Task: structure prediction
Amino acid sequence: MAKFPYNPFDITAGLGAKFIKWLNSLVKDLSDDNQELKARFDEQINSVPQPSEIVDLRINDDGETFTTANNRVANLEKKTLRGSLTNAFGKIFLSVADRLASIEYEVDSRAVNVKRFGARGDGITDDITAIQAAIDFLQNGGTVYFPSGTYNVSQSVKTNDSILLKGFSAKRSILKNIGTGVTVESVGTGINDVKRYQVVKNLTISGTDKSAGGLKLKFSGEYFELKNIRVLDHINGVGIDLPDSFSGTLKNIHVSRSTNSTGIRMYGNNASTGQTTFENVVVAYSKIGIEVGEENNLTANIIDCITFTGCILQHNYSVGMKIGANVRQLKVQTTHFEWQDAAGAIGLLVKGPTAIGGDIDTCWFYQNDTAIQVDYGNNYKFHNLNIQNSKLGIYLTGNSHNNIIGDRVRFANVTEEIRDYSLDNLKITENTIMLNQGYKERDYAIVSNEKPIASMNYTPVEGSTFKLDRGLFSSFKLKTIKFRLKMEISNATAGDQLSIQLYNATNAQTLLEITGTVESDGRLIMTTPLTDFPSEAKWCNIQAKSLTVASRDFTVRKAIIIAEYV
Result:
């Protein structure tokens, strides 16, 4: 061996040689261990494993043994897996769904779980104190989470600015009102205290005949949102009440059984409101389904730009949807009005002075006593409608003005399609009215006026005319159209000879003329023969006059255009 000093990196002597010897020994040990493990695995695969090496999936954490592992899993699901989770804080007991929900909401540092403030959600305990504490804890806004359960509240839950009340799902997270107030209520106090960014999601809000209402957001503005919620059984209270609230969204909502009140109500007594969208909203079994604006409140603020899309109003006892005073620019589309069929019930009612500008498009009216009634409503347009199985289709009262029945309106099994009491001319333009197609008992349409009228189009003196737009018959371009005119006259002089004449206003050509003698009671009913409607005519005039004495006064009580097709 070389004498010291020597090179430490020389692998033939000194530390270098020792290192090489140690490394070779380590490699050999690793190789021997690997061969031993391989032999062991081979033995386990080819022979019976040792009991200490078996994990029996049939045995749960509590030592219970089941016939199969599948039975163990089924048992856990049946019991909602109320097992034990151990962490640094000890044991907590939660259902599987709540475990997942807790993980989800713990990610958001602002979210608080009402159960951590003492709420039980057992349907027995009054949880109002715990729930309110959770909301009040979030002084700068945040999410309050309701795990699955039924949370009884004896007083109103007060929500505030930027608070999101969120359940696990609308079916499984239930707020139940056991008191006499409103179940959930915003705390806005006035136009200078508007609450913003308020959200309620994934909850059922349940009441009784004693509760004052379900959900009330007063002075809630700038993007309030109600989504995936059910409001049920507030028998004598409003389901969702939105006084003086604006700029919001209601989506996937079901309100039912506000039996003696209104399902959803929106009005503006102290602030101009509106700019609100209703999407996939169902309201049923209430006195009034949805009410926007108040009927007789002429001093109310304007409610503008309200849109309904994909909604359903059904089985409401008085009115499906009611539009009141000062509502401007309303749009209702792809919405069903059905089974408002009690005596006098109405699918859509417009009844409020200065209710101006409505577009009713692509809607279905089925089994309503009256499908549509416009009273004190102006500049409404109805088009792409299916009106079926009703006593009265569209009813325009003497207080409505400048309304239009537009294109593709279909009546099927409707006793009286259109009743026009309006002082101004009903405009029927560019129309495809399908008149009871498929119902052999009544293949005709009625445009009528059933009370004495004095106006530019219905002047009850000699030479009076009113306009009939040819669009009424445009749906029958591929069919042969014939029509007749029936007119009822009253307050005329007995024995007078009266004449009714229908002429083409395009070229002043007379199409029909018939005369009759007034009865002793001052009445006369005349019907023209069936005739072809002129294809070149844009519209026609009807003239009623006395042939006995010039300028004799009488009243045109009803004028009916009957169209028949083959």
